[in-house]
């Protein structure tokens, strides 16, 4: 197996991350490639940098969007990879394709993820640093009385607390940006909104208008005097998003339940700096018409509907979807996947999504020209199954085939995913030799096609 851990650097990883000075939140952070001399400027070049890792060095960083202080994370690993090869830290995978998609047998790729305890601890400490920094800034913004800024809509200059400015926007212009006790980096948020308004861009739908009066009338009539909660770029301004996820490794099902509990509103104790996610602080001067809870989103809630694996039906819940597939397609999903672990079910779902999209039967791989013909064939031949293991047990199906696939978000709730007695679900930080069976599924042997 080509998954190895460099023992010499593991104990020092958390301390190095902790002792290093945190990067300032600027737009001009230079990040050197982990393996070559190419330099990227973050955050503007983040996507180009990650693409370079994959195309030039065959390196994929797992859950990269969830990494706090990504610049610090990359700087740490850049130092480590100066003296070590990818194989010493990364899971090695063999795929039958080149980075550009062309066929090539047994091409080697590398996956850097938190299965490695050193990487897990680094990510955890960076998340703590980000939270601590956000809490410090939040407390300053709530108490600083030296704030001064001209209103986004009128010429009034508001001085004093940032809360006074936000109250002015709501009371005089009915613009609800967010509750002061739940916001952080308010100055940056207001500058972003001001830039959009100066460019005649609607704050909610982001359409561009010919002049300011037309824009203001549009926002008034459409109820667009608010920011769009579906835009991930606004997540950084809401304090609740800085403390998602457990602080220690937990079984997958427990972790899934904690993520759902993290959707509660946030308040901060100014004496201790602690976060209470159970309290909802409402505006005393707002009514139901203007005070909606859109401002307190966590950014990754449960899917509202789940698409069927074989047709366009949308289930209101996982239970509803499984009932539909049993009655309509004669597939008992729980029974068909009862012997599979979580990662295998992920591959099954992505395989079925791809087959249906490519108009291929999931069982016999027969191709059809029309979706109706495919559906008729699968119904008549009773081919609405999960296919053979040889078809879906491939590394390419670890990655979602359909964007924002709600079914992948609820697989944890399905039966049959209880850990066996001999399966290690939590990686011990005290024993580097212990790699759980889920990690073993990423090994060289299982990744050969």
Description:
A hairpin with a 6-residue loop joins strand 8 and strand 9. The chain is 38% helix and 10% strand. The chain starts with 6 loop residues before the first helix and ends with a helix. The chain has 449 residues and is α+β, with helices and mostly antiparallel strands. The protein is globular, with a radius of gyration of 25 Å. The chain folds into three domains: 7-116, no CATH class; 144-296, no CATH class; 306-409, no CATH class. Mean pLDDT is 76; it is low at 1-26, 245-302 and 413-449. The longest helix has 27 residues, at 117-143.
Between the first and last Cα atoms, what is the distance in angstroms? Answer: 15 Å
Shape: globular
> Residue share in helices?
25-40%
Q: Secondary-structure element sequence?
A: HHEEHEHEEHEEHHHHEEEEHHHHHHHH
Structural class: alpha+beta
- How large is the share of residues in beta strands? 5-15%
Helix segment count? 17
């Amino acid at each position: 197996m080509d998954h190895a851990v460099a023992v010499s650097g593991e104990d020092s990883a958390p301390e190095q991350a902790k002792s290093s000075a945190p990067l300032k939140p600027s737009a001009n952070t230079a990040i050197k490639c982990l393996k070559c001399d190419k330099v990227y400027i973050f955050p503007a070049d983040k996507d180009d940098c990650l693409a370079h890792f994959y195309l030039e060095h065959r390196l994929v960083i797992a859950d990269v969007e969830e990494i706090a202080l990504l610049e610090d994370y990359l700087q740490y690993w850049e130092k480590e990879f100066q003296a070590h090869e990818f194989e010493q830290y990364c899971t090695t995978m063999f795929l039958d394709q080149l980075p550009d998609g062309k066929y090539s047998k047994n091409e080697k790729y590398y996956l850097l993820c938190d299965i490695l305890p050193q990487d897990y601890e680094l990510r955890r400490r960076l998340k703590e640093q980000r939270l601590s920094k956000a809490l410090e800034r939040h407390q300053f913004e709530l108490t600083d009385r030296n704030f001064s800024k001209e209103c986004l809509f009128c010429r009034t200059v508001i001085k004093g607390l940032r809360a006074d400015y936000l109250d002015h926007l709501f009371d005089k212009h009915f613009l609800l940006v967010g509750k002061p006790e739940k916001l952080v980096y308010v100055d940056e948020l207001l500058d972003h909104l001001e830039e959009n308004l100066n460019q005649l861009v609607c704050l909610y739908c982001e359409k561009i208008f010919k002049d300011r009066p037309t824009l203001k009338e549009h926002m008034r009539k459409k109820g667009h005097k608010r920011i769009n909660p579906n835009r991930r770029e606004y997540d950084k301004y809401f304090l609740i998003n800085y403390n998602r996820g457990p602080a220690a490794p937990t079984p997958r099902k427990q972790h899934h339940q904690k993520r759902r509990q993290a959707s509660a509103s946030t308040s901060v104790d100014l004496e201790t700096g602690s976060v209470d996610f159970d309290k909802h602080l409402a505006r005393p001067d707002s009514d139901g018409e203007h005070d909606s809870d859109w401002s307190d989103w966590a950014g990754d809630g449960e899917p509202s509907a789940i698409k069927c694996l074989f047709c366009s039906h949308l289930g209101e819940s996982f239970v509803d979807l499984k009932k539909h597939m049993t009655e309509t397609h004669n597939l008992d999903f729980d029974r068909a996947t009862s012997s599979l672990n979580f990662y295998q079910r992920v591959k099954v779902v992505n395989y079925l999504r791809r087959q249906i999209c490519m108009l291929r039967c999931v069982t016999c791989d027969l191709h059809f020209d029309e979706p109706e013909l495919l559906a008729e064939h699968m119904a008549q031949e009773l081919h609405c199954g999960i296919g053979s293991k040889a078809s879906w047990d491939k590394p390419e199906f670890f990655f979602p085939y359909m964007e924002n696939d709600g079914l992948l978000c609820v697989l944890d709730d399905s039966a049959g995913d209880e850990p066996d007695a001999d399966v290690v679900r939590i990686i011990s930080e005290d024993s580097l030799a212990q790699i759980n069976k889920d990690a073993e599924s990423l090994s060289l042997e299982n990744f050969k096609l």
